């Protein structure tokens, strides 16, 4: 077989790349090689490693416009005057998704916002739920494993998930939201977003308040009923992405209103739950929503890989006038995102286009450093928030889920919630089935007797006197 090398590229009819490796021959098995190597490289190496969580998603650029003066709470320049506009980027995602999974599956949705402020990047990395499954970060790895495929069988396991939940009753509040209609939103445009954690704001006088962020959809909440979700799963597995992109292409730009709830340091000491517990909400009648501004998403990024896949959000990105809180889950998140992003995107993740702040790097750097110093020095000298201060109601995992069932849901929602839970718990299998079901039913009873009773009946479980003694306690 001839191994004659072609001369330089000018003579080469098949290659025009100067990087042509010397060992590539003009002909292989008599077939001329008609390709450019870089075309292949794009396919072979063009896909980034996936996010470990919230893998499947979509996003867009847009604007945030201040509509209400909150300068008494924060000195952050982004909120300095009504009418001020800041460019933003948003990414929506499904929590336990895989690239090919259907985005009408029951799941938590990620709601991540990046604000390109004149003081640097502020990321609000939230979800479509005001609460989270756990309140101790040490439980996070075990929790995530219950959402992923088994390392043994490579199958998803309802048993693993319920096994975790029944052993950790603090999951109950999020579980009820997850199995309500909110677990299957009708696309990303029709759901609210939440910062979920307690954050802080610091004003020009260096006074601090605790805040929770709420991002309310102006399109109205719409959820899919299970039959619709199942139908769309087979016909439109990318339903949420399609719905979002179609709306932007039709210039039907989705909007949300950003609100905060504010709790003073004094109120925090009086609050009957730990104000930094991410499994709890603050009730609106005690801590009313305060309007802040309007979010509009109106620009589909030109390149999905460069913008949506390369986006690196982190709760560690915040600016002068905004801050964190002693919530241990939030504190754990501060460190973990950078590690994930260095692995996924490389050491220069923050310099990638979508993650870079367009404002002067020097200004951002010096102000961010001084802001961080102020923020953390406040906590270092802090002895007014010892963990023990909140231990009294630390084990109350039931009052708020009970109120969610009775007050937040309508009759129809309650029926759907019970049906969804029964269906999901019927998938528990194996020798621990009875124990897992009994323990979990006990949690439902403790939140609300009617809820526990309906689920028990649906699972054909006989309720014994012992269980009833716990209920409502
Ligand atoms: C200890 C608790 C948590 C840990 C260790 C953790 C860690 C992570 C990591 C490593 C990523 C992937 C980051 C990347 O590759 O860019 C991620 C993504 C994400 N997390 Fe968390 N997380 C925690 C809790 C939460 C909570 C409570 C929320 C919601 C309130 C949340 C919302 C998100 C969202 C929305 C994303 C996807 C961001 C995007 O669109 O790129 N996480 N998380």
TrEMBL record:
One of its GO terms (molecular function) is catalase activity. Pfam families: Catalase, Catalase-rel. Keywords: Heme, Hydrogen peroxide, Iron, Metal-binding, Oxidoreductase, Peroxidase. Its EC number is 1.11.1.6. SMART domains: Catalase. Residues 1-26, 371-395 are annotated as: Disordered. Residues 7-394 form the Catalase core domain. SUPFAM superfamilies: Heme-dependent catalase-like (SSF56634). Residues 17-26 have a biased composition (Basic and acidic residues). InterPro entries: Catalase, Catalase_clade1/3, Catalase_core, Catalase_immune_responsive, Catalase_sf. It is an enzyme of class 1 (oxidoreductase). Residues 1-14 have a biased composition (Polar residues). Belongs to the catalase family. This is catalase.
